[in-house]
What we know:
By secondary structure, the chain is α+β, with helices and mostly antiparallel strands. It contains 22 helices and eleven strands. The strands form three sheets. Strands 2, 5, 6, 7 and 8 form a five-stranded antiparallel β-sheet that branches. The chain has a three-stranded mixed β-sheet with strand order 1-3-4, with no helix packed on it. The chain has a three-stranded antiparallel β-sheet with strand order 9-10-11, covered by helices on one side.
Amino acid sequence: xxxxxxxxxxxxxxxxxxxxxxxxxxxxxxxxxxxxxxxxxxxxxxxxxxxxxxxxxxxxxxxxxxxxxxxxxxxxxxxxxxxxxxxxxxxxxxxxxxxxxxxxxxxxxxxxxxxxxxxxxxxxxxxxxxxxxxxxxxxxxxxxxxxxxxxxxxxxxxxxxxxxxxxxxxxxxxxxxxxxxxxxxxxxxxxxxxxxxxxxxxxxxxxxxxxxxxxxxxxxxxxxxxxxxxxxxxxxxxxxxxxxxxxxxxxxxxxxxxxxxxxxxxxxxxxxxxxxxxxxxxxxxxxxxxxxxxxxxxxxxxxxxxxxxxxxxxxxxxxxxxxxxxxxxxxxxxxxxxxxxxxxxxxxxxxxxxxxxxxxxxxxxxxxxxxxxxxxxxxxxxxxxxxxxxxxxxxxxxxxxxxxxxxxxxxxxxxxxxxxxxxxxxxxxxxxxxxxxxxxxxxxxxxxxxxxxxxxxxxxxxxxxxxxxxxxxxxxxxxxxxxxxxxxxxxxxxxxxxxxxxxxxxxxxxxxxxxxxxxxxxxxxxxxxxxxxxxxxxxxxxxxxxxxxxxxxxxxxxxxxxxxxxxxxxxxxxxxxxxxxxxxxxxxxxxxxxxxxxxxxxxxxxxxxxxxxxxxxxxxxxxxxxxxxxxxxxxxxxxxxxxxxxxxxxxxxxxxxxxxxxxxxxxxxxxxxxxxxxxxxxxxxxxxxxxxxxxxxxxxxxxxxxxxxxxxxxxxxx
Length: 718
């Protein structure tokens, strides 16, 4: 059996409609996506490397914690102190640093300059030159108004260009807002060209094809189909076939003996037998195989999801939806929820696989409904306790494409009889066949008791051997079919896993793409409104999940979304500009921008509110029910044009309540809300003068003692 080309697998990110209506939360494991996990007993060098990975992914706070821990544990090299300094200032405006940040930065920069035994005297890697430049850039960014050197911008630009290539890339990236402040330019031509070059390179890396794979759940580990099970009957098909042959011979032998000993009434008895045996045999041929396959599947299920006899349509209409009575236990409810999810995924995948020349969409769904249910039921029994149903999406795509190929070849199995029809037809067939045998046996027992007992024994033995062998044969064939299909599944699973490993972007790459999108949006906005650097006091982005988006994260990583609600706050000397986009992350495209402008004195209050099921009970309207529990940044303006930003529904991206706090901190940091709330709250209370006040406080924290020649030891990391 040939499967589809695995590279055509589109991933869960391509699904729409019922599948993404409520959003999907994908928590990746460690088999296909790198995690941000550090062994508590890891060496300081390893902790430092993990911290720099976190910095590349945009998790500045986590990066600062890890690099500081590495330094504290003895990894005190120029590279370590320099990396620690970068984690403190990374993509932050000077006003966004707290006094503690400034003091920690002072210690980290001093640590780069300190001489240590074993390190080369020359600065070949450029850490010392870069650290000195960072020090002077930070000083220049917080000087008093009117005291800045007019030529400082050009001087710093030349010094940045003279750095070693890796250090130059790091300084221009992580100190971008500081450089803009010092150079008094909103966006340099070099930075604009860099953004354009990065966008071109991004398109070459097939972002539109690769990004959806990040939102594709890891394929569940394969589980072999259960065997046919232990039985008193043989385990090989050849012996079963021999038993069926013996049963046939016994049946024929009994029939011959009965007819010989019935004498003159053999013709009427034969007619009676045929009236029972013929229709009974027809019913058994039509329904017996399907009923025995149903029973074989049920026998291999876990006991708590094993179903009894099929119910008639009338009985089903009278029953409540879902499992009833004792079946309402957590395991059974979880099984039915898992199977329902698989049915929804199957419908979407079979719809995508519809042959171009095939039936219309409704007709195709009707023609494959039985296949969809069988696949969902089979996989739910096998994988129901292995993980999320979305982890089987790859296999559903394979099954859907195989069905399309079978339709094109004319071999697609049509819908069969319902379970109730199979059960009812088998039961009636057995009753008619039994009557066809019991009537002549009874007459023979009456006329010739000894021979009647012999014939009855032969027929009972034939029935037992026949039904038992038939049932065992069906179970063995079903197990053999599933085992053969599992061989193909194993191959497809290996191909899909390798494809994901090769094509799915790492979390750091997702972070770089998101940062590039924000830089591009900021550039377009500043160009359109022709804003000058001297008029811009501060700017920051706030990110939120768009309605119905897909969510994914790696352990200890930030949440990522297939569609972002992006808000850019640009604080100028004249007021605040708020720009809104809804960004499709796969393509980096948006449907347009909506701008909103207000003055500083229009800000009435700023709230960072935790929203849950009872959010409305504290006096504020409950958030949209689709968002669930999470954080909401609410900016209340005097003109009642309130701004609200939803941060995250944490429960979709964690499998342990213990990680909710960590996830909340990551979401607040990477969404920009933590920094935005601090600045907006300060503006609401202090007004525009807060910027000058904050720069003065920063000078005290950063320069106090440093200009006097004092050198403090590095403070303990946060």
